[in-house]
Amino acid sequence: MRVGVPTEVKTDEYRVALTPAGVRELVDAGHEVFVQAGAGVGSAITDDAYAAQGATIVPDADAVFTAAELIVKVKEPQPEEVDRLEPRHTLFTYLHLAADTALTQGLVESGATCIAYETVEDARGRLPLLAPMSEVAGKIATQAGAFVLEKPLGGRGILLGGVPGVAAANVMVIGGGVVGMHAAFIAMGMEATVYVFDRNLDRLRELDIAFGGRADTCFASTLSIEERLPDMDLVIGAVLVHGARAPHVITRSQLGLMKRHAVLVDVSIDQGGCFETSHPTTHSNPTYEVDGITHYCVANMPGAVPITSTYALTNATMPYVVQLASAGVAGAVVDNPGLKLGVNVAGGRVTYGPVAHATGFEYVPVDEALGVAA
């Protein structure tokens, strides 16, 4: 198969979807790889490094989309990329369609088969292609929150870990999944006082053991969150519903309970945001204020550390890319039921239930859309 790697064009996005090691795996398996010139620069990967492993370097995105059948990316396609998609294409990337009806419409109209990293599952129901970026985003969320708490950045002017004689900041993490766990680990490492909220008691037990008693684990009822908010300096939203729009766990009216210039960091912003007052921001302009509360809602947090993020992501995606290239979509989804769950759009139809529900499109089973036996 002919595999294409375009340069990411989302604002402040420096990752790339394939490393030279990935090129080598594909070439050794008999596939052709076309990489846009400069695609790896943001991740410190040169064109020569790709070429040395057998990639063909092409001048622009048009050349990539023209040459390739399988397009691998990092972020959701931007309008100019959607316009390049054709029914012959398979797109493999993060999509986050539940929060973006317009993008869903564009992908449906393209006729392309679109597979979302974030809804692929493994045999245990985990999200293996979301996990590495969740690990990075969780760590960045605490780093960013600590920075934004500084007075010149719009925060309260408090040091996360305090100093002898001055209390540490209070940090609330809502959501005890991969993002929340890593956010809490960094906050504990910075010596903050940490509270982690989740609705899954078994998960809270696991976290209590993992944290060694260094953080308080709390059941995430509306009242329990509301009662803690007045004491919090930093709140990290790390709520995930597989493939669906994130629920709001803090409303605008609840902002009035918080300290002035406390900070909200919304890691769920790709899925619509878990705070009612959230809207996407960029690394170049990351914060804004609502009712005296500073919001940090960067929609591609891992893009700030592309060397780490690119290699972490492609370590996870590479086996799936090789499987898609070798077996084709129809063969790959039969062989790998977890990959089938990643197919969000195919044949001009929405094939993932939560996306169809969130965007108002009719849901069509993957097998029917692809024309393969169930």
Please give the largest β-sheet: 8 strands, mixed
How much of the sequence lies in strands comes to 15-25%
**Low-confidence residue ranges:** none
Shape: globular
State the total count of DSSP E strands: 15
Write out the strand line-up for the largest beta sheet, numbering strands in chain order: 3-2-1-4-5-6-14-15
Return the structural class.
Answer: alpha/beta
State mean pLDDT (0 to 100 scale): 96
Order of helices and strands: EHEHEHEHEHEHEHEHEHEHEEEHHEEHH
Query: Over the alpha carbons, how many angstroms does the gyration radius reach?
Result: 21 Å
* Count of helical regions: 14
Helix content: 25-40%
Q: Alpha-carbon distance between the termini?
A: 24 Å
List strands and helices in order, with pairings.
Elements: E1 2-5, H1 20-28, E2 32-36, H2 47-52, E3 56-58, H3 61-67, E4 70-72, H4 79-82, E5 90-93, H5 101-110, E6 113-116, H6 131-148, E7 170-174, H7 178-189, E8 193-198, H8 201-211, E9 216-219, H9 222-228, E10 234-237, H10 252-255, E11 263-266, E12 287-290, E13 293-296, H11 306-335, H12 337-340, E14 343-346, E15 349-350, H13 353-359, H14 366-370
Parallel strand pairs: 1-2, 1-4, 2-3, 4-5, 5-6, 7-8, 7-10, 8-9, 10-11, 11-13
Antiparallel strand pairs: 6-14, 12-13, 14-15
Helix pairs in contact: 6-7
